[in-house]
């Protein structure tokens, strides 16, 4: 059970970091006028 919790924690951290990266680059795309790319921002 402890192993499962560790794996789930690592997966959650990885997905959270990915979401933050997508949002960061989406905001840059919006500032640069790439509206279609910016629409992919995750909330």
Structure notes:
This protein is mainly α and 43 residues long. The chain has one domain (2-38). Helix content is 79%, strand content 0%. It has helices at residues 2-31, 35-38.
- In terms of DSSP E residues, the strand content is under 5%
Q: How many β-strand stretches?
A: 0
Number of helices: 2
Kindly report how far apart the N and C termini lie: 31 Å
Classify the helix fraction into a percent range.
over 70%
Q: What is the residue-mean pLDDT, rounded to a whole number?
A: 90
- Number of structural units classed as domains: 1
Question: What is the molecular shape?
Answer: rod-shaped
Order of helices and strands: HH
Main sheet characteristics: none
- Tell me the Rg in angstroms: 15 Å
Oligomer status = single chain
List keywords for this structure.
rod-shaped, mainly alpha, 43 residues
Give a quick precis of the structure:
This protein is an all-alpha fold and 43 residues long.
Task: Please describe the topology of this protein.
Blueprint: H1 2-31, H2 35-38
């Amino acid at each position: 059970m402890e192993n499962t919790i560790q794996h789930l924690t690592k997966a959650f951290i990885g997905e959270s970091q990915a979401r933050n990266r997508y949002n960061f680059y989406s905001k840059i795309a919006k500032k640069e006028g790439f509206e279609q790319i910016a629409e992919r921002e995750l909330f």
